[in-house]
Amino acid sequence: MKPKVKFLPVIIFLLITVLIWTAAACRRGDKQSSGPRTYKVAVIPKGTTHEFWKAVHAGAVKAGQELGVEIFWKGPQKEDDRAQQITVVEDFISRRVDGIVLAPLDDRALMRPVDEAMREGIPVVIMDSNLQGDNYISFVATDNYQGGVLAARRLAEVLGGKGKIFLIRYLEGSASTTFREQGFLETITRDYPGIEFLVKDQFAGTTTESAYQLTENLLSRYPQVEGIFAPNESSTFGALRALQHFGLAGKVKLVGFDSSVKLIQALENNEIQGLALQDPMKMGYLAVKVLLDHIQGRPVEKRIDTGVTMATPENMNRPEIRSLLEPDFARYVR
């Protein structure tokens, strides 16, 4: 009997250890069965100040709420800060997020960090603006070339097919606006021989102020101008301010891109004759959804077009146009 008494503490210790391991395994099992995994997705815009990006943010947040995805929203303040956007991408790679949605502000400079993310097993969906090459999961964006075509047709319409115009460009390396500019330029050149370009190679830069200064200088240099196309929100507003400053708003025809409170007001007042509208909430939503589909093993399309529509003073109060002019993003972001 003495040997059995000698080993009794060892047996009790082993029993207690087994019970502890069993309880821990049960807790792990309960945790795993409590619900689906929450994926962590970084959404990186070109910038964070324009109304367009607030709507993209809202779409991403909406997708996150509906699909069980935790959204991390971070981007450079200025849309020409390539180095900062690259740093943001690299930071999220080091944090091992489950995926990245990126609107590259330069179609070449962001290739290397995207390649790095893909090598690390972090899938990347590109949105809004093209990235050279095809080392990404999907591209979710407006058909920007078609947006430029619509803008060209609208400006030609309000000019009666003839006149002298400015094509104000945005920023070198910005693929989305480059395609808009190309669509506009090629359509005018091919289809409207009565329209003459006074300017077609000047860049407005990334802010309203720089666009205002450029347009002001051009108006002083070319007072005979009759129409202007600007390819994004800040360049459109800068051009509008310059026209207002010279008392030319509504007289010189202006067609722009995207929407804001002040641009809507100018459209109502016929100071702007057309705004090519994207669907930024849809873009942000679909980009997150497509990324999650890929992560969970579902097939995704390589290119997804989120649509483009021309708003005019005549059609702006139609419900389908108004919803694009004023997307309801306040429900999701401040």
Automatic annotation (TrEMBL):
Database matches in InterPro entries: Peripla_BP_I, SBP_2_dom
Key words, A-Z: Signal
Source domain of life: Bacteria
Homology family: Belongs to the bacterial solute-binding protein 2 family.
Gene3D superfamilies membership: 3.40.50.2300
Family annotation (SUPFAM superfamilies): Periplasmic binding protein-like I
GO molecular function: carbohydrate binding
Source species taxonomy: Bacteria, Candidatus Aminicenantota, Candidatus Aminicenantia, Candidatus Aminicenantales, Candidatus Saccharicenantaceae
Protein name as catalogued: Ribose/xylose/arabinose ABC transport system, periplasmic ribose-binding protein RbsB
Domain Periplasmic binding protein: 41-298
Keyword Acetylation: no
